[in-house]
Fold each of these.
Amino acid sequence: GVLFGNGNGGFPTTEDGCRTLVERGGMKISPFFMPMILPNMAASNVSRRFGCTGYNSTVITACSASNQAIGEALEVLRRGTADVMITGGTEAGISQLGLSGFSSMRALTTRNDEPQKASRPFDSMRDGFVPAEGAAVIVLETLDHARARGARILCELAGFGSTSDAYHLVQPQESGVGASRAMGLALSDAGVAIGDVDYINAHGTSTPLNDLAETIAIKKLFAQHAKSIPVSSTKSMIGHSLGASAALEVIPCVMSIIDGILHPTINHEFPDTDCDLDYVPNVYREQNVETVLSNAFGFGGQNACLVFKKYRESV
């Protein structure tokens, strides 16, 4: 089966279509316009390319879409609907229309004269996210299927948790309760105690509200353990690719388990007294990693978290 996450569909195509409509009239709109802007084409195109005739869906939950898609792909495997799922996320959101919309919301960084330092999650000088785009794909399969084909098993996707803030159109819940519940559900689903988490890959967008709310949510769930767990933001180095971001962040999560290396949160130069966790500031860290929690939160109060564990062959 195929299950993908996406945030905006074909934003650049929408923009080009609108420009053509205004400048040249409706009869000049491409016949491919409609299928090119439909978000579900993310999964459809992959299915057609590889001949996947099983379960097929695209999840549209803003910036949590990839984690939601990967988590739902896990559920498809668990209930026996498929034995292999191609899953992940994709986003092509760099367009004048999209950037203008985010800019009007004051969601983007204004550090245009120093772009290499613009994304600075959890830093007191953060002022918005750096927009990006891309895609990432992972293959999930049942243990029996992986063994049968002699696969190198990279890790186990062990848990998935999803909640809604039911709070605000774009702002995270200040108390962090929705995000905290999603993390807790993912850990419970994986059978992992809060004291056994070795690393948290944060949503960490570099916006004032998100980073504070995520910090509060982590402290709410992990209590006395919170400050001893390394937390870092991939977005500090690659920006925020919206619906694709969580899938892109799965890769360093898995590699941290394989290689024992935690990537840093770069540009963490001016600590925020309210964001007071261990953000692995500026320099990577070598550490044995058995269990990883990966967070993704989106506009509309969408929260989706995944738990990855080191795979050990059962005796």
Amino acid sequence: MHYKNFIFICSVFCLICLVSCAQGTGSGNVQGGDFTVQGKITHAKSKKVFLKQINFATGSPIILDSVDIIKDSTYSFKTSKIKGQHLFVIQPEAGYPFLFINDASSATLNINGDHPMTPEIKGSEGTTGLYQFLATYRTDDSSIVETFRALDSIHKIATPTIKDDSVRDVLGTQRDQRIVQMNKDIQHYVEKTPSPIAAFYVLKLMAPRSIQPEDLLPITQKASERFPEDGSLAGLASQLKVSLASSNPNNYPLMGQSAPDLSMKSPDGQDIKISDFKGKYLLVDFWASWCGPCRAENPNVVKAYNRFKDKNFTILGVSLDKDKDAWTKAIMHDKLTWNHMSDLKYWNSAAVSAYQFEGIPFNVLIDPTGKIIAQNLRGDDLENKLAEVLK
């Protein structure tokens, strides 16, 4: 089961904000030219409102215009020479951003500054559908977070004599079922939305949090086929293909080479180096407490460790956490009884550049001589590889 940022999960509002720093290709070519968007803004914290265009290629919003909110709380933007369908943000100067898609020549967006997720939309089918999906996504997201909070609560009260694995198992099953439902909702929306830029937005920023790249690729390809004139979806499918190809063991640049040595601190402040484990088969597992797919994969890693730990094999967890407390709690909660280290630098960790990976979970298997012999082993593949080398 795959999910990113479970514990410190981004809200849907945060995802709206993150669209301004997402990278990707250009937008589609379904609707364009002149368009007008107008409406009312109540509970505004300022008198000025901006119209911004999201540029996925540069990762920065472009300010197209600004107007003053007049006395009856109304605003109006008229923009020309916009080619293709794009994602825009209408944002009061001191307020929340509101997404808007130019899939019609004229639309109304009435905004309540105190309620960023519930604008009143008229005339834009793409914008209406996107906000309906965001409401569903927010519900799915909240239910998943609830299960993790419940699991954390069980962990906090657990002692060697007070355990409730049955409740933990039930909650784990609920979590997995809710992730499956979220993925179904994502796929259904992408298959039905009339807006290619909305499909791109969801596939680019949301779907990767819960859907593995190998499962996301066919969904993206299908969306690209629905909108053959849209370059963004075709580009995203191409990026996924490249990513999957790079995860092929035969393409990993460090395969067969000596493992780069790293030195970091253990949870109790001791220095640990990868080279400390030379002479054993070592799985270096790159993960983080905030990484949903990592947490979901941990039971498989625990199972493999328990099976092979007495056969000249061990694991070293290397965390991309920033918060030491969250890191140590996750180690205890997931019962990761092997050695751990971290420099607590998130994606700036020395591990990322040294081992050349772009996502987690990621791992490398190092033989007793210090050579990398496998990478990115998950689920049954991990146990099968260990069974092969630890005969």
Amino acid sequence: MVAKISVGSSLYGAIAYNGEKINEAQGRLLTTNRIYNDGSGTVDIGKAMEGFLTFLPPQMKIEKPVVHISLNPHPEDVLTDIELQNIAREYLEKLGFGNQPYLVFKHEDIDRHHLHIVTVNVDENGKRLNRDFLYRRSDRIRRELEQKYG
């Protein structure tokens, strides 16, 4: 499994990118946490933005609050949608983002399926989550999940 983490400032851009994959029939929304989900596999960008705004107050001083994660299982791994949801949930919990609002998308735009996760690194009080050694922690977690699911 390969994990790629991008930290940025455009929540709308991260959600719209994944929404475009859905519109092109190359992806769908698998699950959410603390964000509206009607169960259709699509994303309502406006409602998703509203769900995140609780964590992004206008007076917030954090420059790059958006975290966009790509989790790419090995191409030979045959994983169900439930297993993919569990992988995303466990990954975020172990990374320290388990209580954050997030969207988990499944993409099928290349030869293998993979996940895209959109979340924020700001808690409900407007304080930044601990990002120390984020990439190192991610690497350890993805190896654990590889052993468990792959």
